[in-house]
Amino acid sequence: MSSASTTPASGVANRRAFGRTRELLDSPAATYYLLLAVTALLVSVGLVMVLSASMIVSLKDDDTPFAVFKGQLVFAILGLVALVIAMRLPMSFWKRIGGLALLVAVFLQLLVVFTPLGTGQGGNRNWLDLKFTSLQPSELGKLALVLFGARVLAQKRRVLGDFREAMIPFVMPAAAIVLLLVMIGHDLGTAMVIAALVAGMLFAAGVRLRWFAAAGIGGVALLALATLTSSNRLGRINIWLNPSVCKPKNEDLYYGICRQPLHAQFALADGGVTGIGLGASKEKWQWLSEPHNDFIFAIIGEELGLIGALIVLALFAVFAYATYRLVVRTDDFFVRIAAVGVMVWILVQAIINIGAVIGTLPIIGVPLPFVSSGGSSLITTMLAAGMLLAFARAEPGCREALALRPSAVKGSMAVLGRARRKTTS
């Protein structure tokens, strides 16, 4: 009797909730608010987890548990400034800046590769040491290629059926130069992300599919060559394909190249479903290297469990959905291609990072976007998010909806004030 009486009511409530959700998503400002909210949440999760994951590293290096976190907080503030400025810039700015940004990125990457200012670790030479700070020009290169490629492909929209027109100058020489400089620095992970975003933009622009097959064969050959010429990469591939070799009796492997994947899996196993508690990680006590950077997802899984890990995955899924909305709702070809470039960049990088942590991919070494410690990655991805917000503001009806928001809030406050006065009287 009770179930029969409650079922219709719950059904009505569900239909109302569904209708309200549809109404919100149909709003011209929905894409803008989704992008803003998911970016804020990912950066917030990143700050909390960087603080938790880096405390032991900071104590060891600087005698204070907040050293890495303070740096990341500064980068987040700078990224917020970049995001706010970017979201206010006109569309004409984004369409003009691509070429200049690409020249700057290539120049900085040349300094990394061919001058003493270039530094790195783990066999990778991908940082520019400016004495007062350091930066990773390849991160700027990703955004520069997105902007340059979107402008070129938009200008050549009518002739992309011609192979030469589709390739020049976006793929050759622009993307090829950036990829070559990154690979000279032995940063295979970043090169894979760049190659993916270039391919994604070409696909979204409507380049013929048969060309992707030929490019894919060439890409696999280059990847195999890069792997075979590096003993470190060969070792990572070997332990990924044959994890049984990572046994305590093989001390050189167990405490060497096997250390990161093993302790990442230990962290995830310890976390279980609900986690062992925020700040309670055991693996960050010098067992798992780079716990606040490339392996921060392992610390999330250990401290917040499967639930916390799924929440992070859900946030990236929302980011993908919001960006896809932007792609399908715009009539501007430049916006469509640039948005696809950013979406592929963020998602592929997240897939590579998370895949390495959970063991479905070999360890390649890229940060988790918005979450991992690192100023260049955080500021650049927040700048890219600001650009997407600028695109979302340009959607038909969005600016008007945002302009009405303050007056709506004021009206609501006035109604509440009148109601409160009537109640007191």
From TrEMBL:
**What species was this sequence derived from?**
Nostocoides vanveenii
Keywords on record = Cell cycle, Cell division, Cell membrane, Cell shape, Cell wall biogenesis/degradation, Glycosyltransferase, Membrane, Peptidoglycan synthesis, Transferase, Transmembrane, Transmembrane helix
Which reactions are catalysed by this chain? [GlcNAc-(1->4)-Mur2Ac(oyl-L-Ala-gamma-D-Glu-L-Lys-D-Ala-D-Ala)](n)-di-trans,octa-cis-undecaprenyl diphosphate + beta-D-GlcNAc-(1->4)-Mur2Ac(oyl-L-Ala-gamma-D-Glu-L-Lys-D-Ala-D-Ala)-di-trans,octa-cis-undecaprenyl diphosphate = [GlcNAc-(1->4)-Mur2Ac(oyl-L-Ala-gamma-D-Glu-L-Lys-D-Ala-D-Ala)](n+1)-di-trans,octa-cis-undecaprenyl diphosphate + di-trans,octa-cis-undecaprenyl diphosphate + H(+)
Topology relative to the lipid bilayer, per the entry, is: Multi-pass membrane protein
Instruction: Tell me the protein family, please.
Output: Belongs to the SEDS family. FtsW subfamily.
What is the name attached to this protein's record? Probable peptidoglycan glycosyltransferase FtsW
- Main enzyme class: transferase
What is this protein's function?
Peptidoglycan polymerase that is essential for cell division.
> InterPro entries, per this entry?
FtsW (IPR013437), FtsW/RodA (IPR001182)
Q: In which pathway does it act?
A: Cell wall biogenesis; peptidoglycan biosynthesis
Q: Where are the transmembrane segments?
A: 32-57, 69-87, 99-117, 137-154, 166-184, 190-207, 212-231, 295-321, 333-364, 370-392
Write out the annotated subcellular location: Cell membrane
This entry's Enzyme Commission designation comes to: 2.4.99.28
